[in-house]
Amino acid sequence: MLRFLVVWSVAMFRLFSKSRRIVYKWILAAFLFVMALGMVITLTPLGGGDTTQMQANVLASVDGANITTQDLRQGIDSRLRNTPLAYQSQLVPRIAQGVLDQMVIDRAMIKQARKLGIEITQQELLQALQGIPGLYDNGKFIGMDAYENQLGAQGLTVGQFEAQLRQQLLFDKVRNVITDGVVVTPAEVHEEFVKRNAKAKIEYVVFDPSQFLKSVQVTPAALDAFFKKSPERYKAPQQRRVRYVLIDADRVRAEVKVDEAALRQYYGQHLSDYRVPDRAKVAHILFKTTGKNPAEVSTIEKTAQDVLAQVKSGADFGDLAKQHSEDTSAQSGGEIGWIVRKQTVKEFDDAAFSMKPGEVRLVKTIYGVHIIKVEDKQSAHLQSLDEVKDAIRAELEKQKLAAAEESLADRFEREVKAKKDFQAAARELGLEARETPLFKYNQSIPDFGNSEAFQSLAFQLPQGDVGQPISVPKGLAVIQAAEVVPEHVPTLDEVRARVEQDYRAEQSRVLASEKAKQFAAAARSGDFKKIAKTQHLDVKESKDFTRQDSVSETIPASAVAAAFTLAPGQTSDVAAAGTNSVVFHVLSHTPPNEADFAAQQGQIAEDLLGRKREVAFEIYQQNLKQWLLQSKELKMNDAAMKQFLASYAR
User: Fold this and answer.
1) Fold match flag (2-183+608-649 vs 278-379)
2) What is the domain partition of the chain in residue ranges?
3) 618 pLDDT exceeds 80?
4) pLDDT band of 12, cuts 50, 70, 90
5) Number of separate helices (H) and strands (E) present in the chain
């Protein structure tokens, strides 16, 4: 059924290519029909399909495209990239199924995009890249080296990143097709206008638990029962004590020498690094045309021509850039600096490298209309050894220092393992053996700060073992797990003060809530203020507020939401406002000013449409997996998934 509907949708798309919105509405109608079937399918238990032909390392197959255990590991690694290593193995069983489900949905979305003839062009990918902060500085590409370094820090190659971006752009297009027929009615817009702008006014009493602390009775039996109810709450985390030596640059600096022969050799081996390509120093004035209609573009081009005429008549280019340019370089008089070929978009690049120094020209690109000024140009050449000698010396010293540090650290590691004595090995090599106090994971330690490498290794080593050298802020370190105190639940006596504090806090909230319930019951059958006065309670009155407004710093909008459903004169149930309890009495309702509707309806309609489209797409994704299972286009290898999860449980 799904295959038929998608193929039918493609045919309709081609037939009515001049009326895409009509086609999208037909596609949406088909989608809603399949979604209705999906609701039935979802209520019917479905297995993973026939898995007898699936290999042991294949977790799922979407129309013949396999998702393997290696694919899932990569997906999990990406999800946990910023999670400390010590916690990752604990999280894998919790997130693995969700990651696999998303991978299934992603592959299914790619499949649907192909069937609908949806693709991402190279120009669309380029435009998306140009919109990413950090890749373009003042409209100028930062260069491949910087681009690769930025991605490398995130564990990605350029190819991987651009493939992910292309896939996301593809999904956005599919989303637009699926949700294009979603609409909002004038009645829905007006209803939302009323919700956003209607106001209420209340009087209220706050019951603060801190006012009931003195009334809490603490007995040994009550404290013991409270502790036994949730002992895991007081679990003491694993702690470690570590022996270590630090090896920094100062320790090995005397061993590092860089002579002239080494400088010449490095220079000769890295000549390509010192070749300066053709480059041009440019400035520009940008008049943006993105999102403008033809009439507006024509006006912008005329303005650009007028400014160009002023430049050619001798007006200061920098002053005109500050006055007219819509680029971030405007503040610096339009200065971009030196660029090399293919560093900017093609039209800009072609113009800059065909112009002479001092020449000014008008150029159109995807960004808009530019007035480009070439200030200087340099032909490709090779820098001499004398020009780069200092930089080479610094690089070689850095490399030799790092090598000397690694050599000493490796020697120390071998010495420790041979002597079985950390401190004796340190003395043998003239190093200082130090020791940390007991510390918890992620606790900052002098000499290491918040080093992730140190924390991870320290909590992975078995007691007594020595780890391989690791890089830390102060250089290299070799560490030994000197003591391991396992995670454990302490006795009540060990944490009595903390348990008593928690018990008093909980019981004070209970007392505050009970007092609030008693007051609310009395206030519903009498005068709110009078009853509050007889109970010595402080009544406060709010200003008019909307559904989005907080009544005070301690009473959020969610606590008084019922003020808009209760009638004036009615008293609320007890509402939670953080740890406080609140009871309120509705004084009045104020309807919105209809004169404001015209100014707000556009934004409200846009917000509602976005919300409804998001819901429609979420439902589509939720049911997509079930549709594919029903049509046998998706097979799930439950046995392989259980084995995968079991490997992390051991």
Assistant:
1) no
2) 2-183+608-649, 199-234+494-590, 239-251+404-485, 278-379
3) yes
4) very low
5) 21, 20
What mean pLDDT is predicted for residues 182-200? Answer: 96
Q: In angstroms, rounded to a whole number, what is the distance separating the alpha carbons of residues 371 and 105?
A: 47
Quote the Cα angle for 212-218-221, to 5°: 145
pLDDT tens digit sequence for 445-488: 999 988 888 998 999 999 999 999 998 888 899 999 999 999 99
Q: How far is residue 219's CA from residue 630's CA, in Å, rounded to a whole number? A: 61
Tokens 């290593």 correspond to what residue?
Answer: 85
Q: What is the pTM of this model?
A: 0.58
Backbone angles phi, psi at 373, to 5 degrees: -120, 125
d(CA 302, CA 295): 11
239-251+404-485 sits in which CATH class?
A: alpha beta
Distance CA(264)–CA(258), nearest Å, equals: 11
CATH 1.10.4030.10 fits 2-183+608-649, yes or no: yes
Place of tokens 């409209």: 139
Closest residue by Cα to residue 365 from 291, 282, 288: 288
* Res 34: pLDDT: 39
Per residue in 472-529, pLDDT (tens digit) is: 888 899 999 999 999 999 999 999 999 999 999 999 999 999 999 999 999 999 999 9
The answer to whether residue 268 scores a pLDDT higher than 60 is yes
What's residue 454's pLDDT?
93
Fold of domain 278-379: Chitinase A; domain 3 (3.10.50)
CA distance 368 to 352: 16
Asked if residue 32 has pLDDT above 70, the reply is no
Selection from 121, 137, 118 nearest residue 13 by Cα? 118
CA 446 to CA 452: how far, in whole Å? 14
Q: How far apart are alpha carbons 638 and 650 in whole angstroms?
A: 19
Q: Under DSSP, is residue 429 helix (H, G, I), strand (E, B) or coil? A: coil
Report whether 280 contacts 348 (CB < 8 A).
no
Q: Is 382 helix (H, G, I), strand (E, B) or coil?
A: strand
Structure token digits, residue 118: 């949806």
Q: Largest Cα–Cα distance of the chain, in whole Å?
A: 99
> Is residue 135 predicted with pLDDT exceeding 70?
yes
CA distance 163 to 86: 30
CA atoms within 13 A on the CB side of 59: 20
Question: What radius of gyration, in Å, describes the C-alpha atoms of the chain?
Answer: 35
Q: State the pLDDT at residue 24.
A: 39
